[in-house]
Automatic annotation (TrEMBL):
Entry-linked PANTHER family: STOMATIN-LIKE PROTEIN 2, MITOCHONDRIAL
Matching Gene3D superfamilies: Band 7 domain (3.30.479.30)
Membrane topology: Single-pass membrane protein
Family the entry assigns: Belongs to the band 7/mec-2 family.
One Pfam family matching this protein: Band_7
Name of the protein in question: SPFH/Band 7/PHB domain protein
Localisation per UniProt entry: Membrane
GO cellular component: plasma membrane; side of membrane
Superkingdom, taxonomy of origin: Bacteria
Length: 295
């Protein structure tokens, strides 16, 4: 009886051990990879495969997950490096780089410290790029410099299985002496622009004044021409009247003008005494005579 019990107990242990082995085999052979990671699998120390997100199967006890690599986008710490422009100005550039790992097998086997390697690469590219530009170009063409840095960094880290998604130049700082010199230059440029603007305004005012005088002269000439045309027309009418009615028409017009002139003199304000020429009454008489003659 004891032997039977001992036999059953020994069988249960074997079954338990077998079940435990199967469970362990399943756990070692089935790998569930998160969406944000990739697993690098080795077999006897050599690269075997790269597991993507989801359920994956490997050979238990032979294959091992050696590296769990995040494929999320990463940001390098803000770095600051000194650079000298082509016009010998020392600037301090603050940069930031964003990247993500696309091929973990290259990243884990070709480079030890990814962040430090990218930071060193960016520093060298920034110094080389700024060294080919003047200070004004660095300030005004920052976007072009950013594109250049991103492209060169992307080419440099391509063998590491990394994609550079964005590169930024956060700030370009100058030393105090350079800032003071730039401020003086800026003030001088503002003064020059003010003088140019004032000169342009003076020139424009002279041009407008000349245009106004020319316009006035043209209008005066037009008025004189109109007056001359009127005088010519009046002379033509008088000449025609003389031709048709004889010299009496001319004498009548002269006498009428004399009467109108005397009337205008008499109508003036503040005139208590009117001095008439000696032949003024004769003018009235001549006018009436001519009028009677015409009637």
């Amino acid at each position: 009886m004891d032997e039977i019990i001992n036999g059953l107990g020994g069988g249960n242990i074997v079954l338990l051990l077998l079940a435990a082995f199967l469970i362990l085999t399943v756990l070692r052979g089935v790998k569930i990879v998160p969406q944000s990671e990739k697993y690098v699998v080795e077999r006897f120390g050599r690269l075997q495969s790269v597991l993507g997100p989801g359920i994956n199967f490997i050979v238990p006890f032979l294959d091992r997950v050696r590296h769990k690599v995040s494929i999320l986008e990463r940001q390098l710490p803000t770095a600051s490096q000194d650079a000298i422009t082509s016009d010998n100005v020392l600037v301090q550039v603050e940069t930031s780089v964003f990247y993500r790992i696309l091929e973990p097998e290259k990243t884990v086997y070709r480079i030890r410290d990814v962040d430090a390697a990218i930071a060193t690469t960016v520093a060298g590219i920034v110094r080389a790029g700024i060294g080919e530009m003047e200070l004004d170009e660095v300030q005004s063409n920052r976007q072009q410099l950013i594109s250049q840095i991103k492209q060169q960094v992307a080419d440099a880290v391509d063998d590491w299985g990394i994609e550079v998604t964005r590169a930024e130049i956060l700030d370009v700082n100058l030393d105090a002496q350079t800032r003071e010199a730039m401020l003086q230059q800026l003030n001088a440029e503002r003064a020059r622009r003010a003088q140019v603007t004032e000169a342009e305004g003076t020139r424009r005012a002279v041009e407008l004044q000349a245009d106004a005088e020319l316009y006035a002269a043209q209008k005066e000439a037009e008025a004189r021409r109109v007056s001359a045309d009127a005088e010519a027309y009046a002379t033509e009418v008088v000449a025609k009247a003389i031709k048709e009615n004889g010299i009496e028409a001319a004498q009548y017009q002269v006498a009428l003008k004399q009467v109108e002139a005397l009337t205008a003199v008499g109508a003036g304000e503040g005139k208590q005494t009117i001095i008439l020429p000696a032949n003024a009454l004769d003018a009235f008489g001549d006018a009436f005579k001519l009028l009677k003659g015409k009637v």
